[in-house]
Structure formats: structure tokens, C-alpha cells
Design a protein that fits this description.
- By secondary structure, the chain is α/β, with parallel strands linked by helices.
- Helices cover 30% and strands 21% of the residues.
- It is built from 13 helices and 22 strands.
- The chain has helices at 10-16, 34-49, 62-80, 135-140, 165-173, 206-216, 221-229, 246-249, 320-334, 357-363, 376-389, 405-410, 431-442, and strands spanning 23-26, 54-59, 85-87, 92-94, 100-105, 122-125, 153-157, 182-184, 189-194, 250-251, 262-268, 276-282, 286-288, 291-293, 298-305, 307-308, 311-315, 339-342, 367-370, 398-401, 416-417, 420-424.
- Strands 3-4-5-2-6-7-1-9-8 form a nine-stranded mixed beta sheet, with helices on both faces.
- β8 (182-184) and β9 (189-194) form a beta hairpin.
Length: 454
């Protein structure tokens, strides 16, 4: 085998350093060098495990496979010369040490028949955003099998903005800080989210590539931002697309709320529909963890959301006693009183002995007052303004901890109302957004629920 010199970008180097025991989600924008990186990872796997290495690389279409085939020819040619042989009819690479790489296509469940009963030691799924749901890729994981002394691995690559944007961001992006390992329930594996952008890829003509991206979506600035910045809060037509930015608004999880910060709850009630409750912390003007929060900035430090695992718009049927107990437990963890604001519907007389939902909460030790009287548009505009001001050194902003998973799984992709463009479409899973809206309106006043610290 030849000994060529192969230069790597900072992103590629960092991704190669992630332990093989971790699966990888390569989730940056376009042109970040993900395909070249995947080819290099294949080479390393082949060299480490020899004839036992069996790699499956999949895309949705054979046309997509042709793009990666060219990358393989370049990379494998540099390393093996003519030693690595490609059978174009079978889409199979065979390496000098007996290792095997198959470039496969899978679009429907019928396509899975080609792989059923076969074993692979590494699975790579490229352009995963083309899949509307993860069912096919999840099924392929059953083909990952290897000897005890040989790690198996899954690598998934995607750009934001595709049809699979929602499930990819839910599974991989908003689970932890980039490059920080996290446990993913479905696969029962440890994953690392490795983002990249073309601005970090010094091996391409960045100026010319920018022109091509702009030309590809001249009337879709949000999609352009997704491609250029790799921002997973971008969603075409999304209500908060112009003001919610993962890089500015998402903050690391806190362990405690600093002294001197005002705190309160913001709650949207639901039983058949989800319920959402947030712990708001209002900054006195202070730097925490290297980030400065101007005075009156709000940080959502935690949430309690009651939705079904596979349906973000369906509740768990919890009663007020159930919710009150969990809300008090969350407040105890943060050492804050269980007091705050809730939607006006909580204060309507319900006709049973407790009087209203708010009265029933009070019986169980959780105290809500109505959110400030205002129409929906006023609340949304206030929320959008605070989101857009996040990161400014002299303006209050709205920041959300990454542990607030229901927020990050729903709010970035909520759609506008087609009939009333300045409003949000309430048919979507807007329960977290509603709760935050109530909390944002609460920021503009000082009332009796101003809590004292426990």
C-alpha cells in the first residue's frame, strides 16, 4: 500500500478523533467535507479490521450513490492505487486485505429485502434528511453485527432543511452540545453530534461555492441559512425561522440558578393534549459560564412536558394532581417556589367542586395567576423580539437550555397560519410555545407572584 499524505480540515480531524464506540451524526451545512470524511472513516475501518470489515453505505437513490462513488475513487486511489477494485454492476469495493464496502440504495421497505439476513460491521447513511421518517434506517441497524472484539458503528450524515429535518433534529441535534456524547434511546447507543460548515472547509473555493448556494435558493433565505450555517432551527415557512437560532438561543444545561435571579413558572395546561411547564430565570445582568445575560434576559432552565413519545401533539392524560406533583418536584430540584402564570383557560369555572383548574392546582400546592391580558399576536411579537435579541450585549434576550427537549423538538418547526400570516398555526404542537409566550408576557410586570427563593 502507498503512503500518501492526506490533509484534513479541523472538522474532519475532530470527527476522526471521536472514539469508535460512539456513533456519529454528521449534521452540518453543505460543503463541510462530510462525504470525504466518511470515505476516510471507511479506510480506517478497513485497515483496522481487515477481512472482517464489512461496510454498508446507503443513500435513497442510485443517483446519489454515484456522487459518493466519485469521492471513493479519489480517496481510495490515493491510498491503494489500483489495489482497491470496484465492481460498478454490484456497487461493491473490494480491498487488498479482503475488506468489503457496498454502496447501497434503500428507498422503500421492499428495498430492504436486499439486505435482510446479511451482516455489516459499519453502517453509513448519507443524505438522511431525504427520509421523511427513520423507519428504514432503524431497520438497517439490525444488520450491524460483528465479533466481540470488533466495534460496530453507525454514521449518519444530513443537512438541515430536508423532509427529515424534524426527526433528525429531535434525535441528534438538541440532545447535547456539539461534540458531547449523549445516549440515544432508540438505538441504545452513545452518539456524538458533529456539525460542520463549508466555511471550515479550506479545500474548496468558498467564494464560488457561496455563489452557487445563493443561486440554488434565491427566494428562500431560510434554506440558504440552513445550507450555509448548518442551523437546525431553520425550517422553511416556520413561524420563528427569522428569530430563533440554535447558536444564539441554545445554552448549556445549568446545575443551579444563581442567586439574585428572579424565577417563576410558565404553564400551558393539557390532558388529552400535552401540558408544558417552564422554569423562567430572569437575569439581573450577569455572566454565567462565559456568556453574558443582559438585565431582564430570560433563561428557560428546565421544562416538564407531558406528550407521548412518538406524538408531540398528544398528551399523556395526566390529571391536575399528577401534574402538580411533578411540577413541585421540578421546582424542588431548582429550589424555587411552585408559582407562576398559566393560560386564561385554567381560571375558567369548570363546574365541579374545585371551581377551576387553577383552584385545583392551588389545592395541591401549585399557585398560578393569569398571564397578562394580551392578544396572541402581541405575545408572539414580544417572544420573537426577545429571541432575536439573544446574544446582544446590551439588549435582553430569550435563551433556552438544551434540556428543554420539547421546546427544541417543536418550536423551531411550528408553521405560520396560512389564513393569518402574523399568527402561528395552532393545529401544530404549539403547547410549549404557548407556555413560553405566557412567561414572556409575565416578564413585563411585577406582581404578587414574585417568588422568594426556598
Amino acid at each position: 500500500m502507498q503512503s500518501p499524505t492526506i490533509e484534513l480540515s479541523e472538522f474532519q480531524t475532530r470527527a476522526m478523533e471521536v472514539p469508535e464506540s460512539c456513533d456519529l451524526f454528521l449534521g452540518g451545512g453543505r460543503g463541510g467535507g462530510k462525504s470525504y470524511l466518511m470515505a476516510l472513516m471507511i479506510v480506517r475501518h478497513v485497515e483496522q479490521y481487515g477481512e472482517r470489515a464489512r461496510v454498508l453505505f446507503v443513500r435513497k437513490s442510485y443517483r446519489g450513490i454515484a456522487d459518493f462513488e466519485l469521492v471513493c475513487r479519489e480517496v481510495f486511489g490515493k491510498i491503494y492505487g489500483t489495489g482497491a477494485r470496484y465492481n460498478g454492476g454490484e456497487h461493491v469495493w473490494r480491498f487488498p486485505n479482503g475488506a468489503y464496502l457496498e454502496l447501497g440504495q434503500i428507498e422503500t421497505f421492499a428495498d430492504y429485502d436486499k439486505y435482510q439476513g446479511r451482516s455489516f460491521t459499519m453502517l453509513m447513511a448519507d443524505e438522511a434528511g431525504q427520509y421523511a421518517d427513520p423507519a428504514l434506517l432503524d431497520m438497517l441497524r439490525s444488520n450491524l453485527r460483528g465479533p466481540k472484539d470488533m466495534p460496530i458503528r453507525c454514521v449518519v450524515a444530513a443537512n438541515p432543511g430536508g423532509v427529515g429535518h424534524h426527526w433528525l433534529s429531535k434525535r441528534y441535534v438538541f440532545r447535547a452540545e456539539p461534540w458531547a456524547p449523549f445516549y440515544e434511546d432508540k438505538s441504545e447507543r452513545t452518539w456524538v453530534y458533529a456539525p460542520s460548515t463549508f466555511s471550515g472547509n479550506t479545500f474548496i473555493d468558498q467564494r464560488e461555492y457561496t455563489k452557487q448556494l445563493r443561486a440554488a435558493c434565491p427566494e428562500d433565505p431560510e434554506l440558504l441559512r440552513a445550507w450555509v450555517e448548518g442551523d437546525w432551527t431553520v425550517n422553511r415557512g416556520a413561524y420563528f425561522a427569522g428569530c430563533l437560532d440554535e447558536k444564539r438561543n441554545a445554552v448549556e444545561n445549568w446545575d443551579a440558578i444563581p442567586e439574585g435571579w428572579r424565577t417563576y413558572l410558565a404553564h400551558d395546561f393539557g390532558s388529552a393534549a400535552p401540558s408544558a411547564t417552564y422554569v423562567f430565570a430572569i437575569s439581573p445582568g450577569e455572566e454565567i459560564g462565559g456568556r453574558f445575560y443582559p438585565r431582564d434576559s430570560a433563561v428557560l432552565v428546565d421544562e416538564l412536558a407531558t406528550c407521548k413519545k412518538d406524538n408531540l401533539n398528544s398528551g399523556l392524560g395526566w390529571t391536575v394532581p399528577d401534574l402538580a406533583g411533578q411540577i413541585k418536584a421540578m421546582c424542588a430540584r431548582w429550589k424555587v417556589p411552585p408559582r407562576g402564570v398559566a393560560d386564561d383557560a385554567c381560571f375558567a369555572r369548570s363546574g365541579h367542586s374545585t371551581g377551576s383548574i387553577a383552584d385545583e392546582f392551588r389545592e395541591f400546592g401549585v399557585f398560578f395567576e393569569p398571564a397578562r391580558k394580551a392578544d396572541r399576536i402581541t405575545g408572539w411579537n414580544r417572544m420573537r423580539k426577545l429571541l432575536s435579541q439573544a446574544g446582544m450585549p446590551d439588549r435582553p434576550g430569550l435563551y433556552i437550555a438544551r434540556r428543554c427537549r420539547y421546546f427544541w423538538e417543536t418550536v423551531p418547526t411550528l408553521a405560520r397560519d396560512d389564513r393569518k400570516i402574523e399568527d402561528l398555526d395552532s393545529d401544530g404542537p404549539d403547547h410549549g410555545a404557548d407556555a413560553v409566550r405566557y412567561g414572556v408576557l409575565r416578564m413585563d410586570r411585577r406582581v404578587s407572584i414574585e417568588p422568594l427563593r426556598l
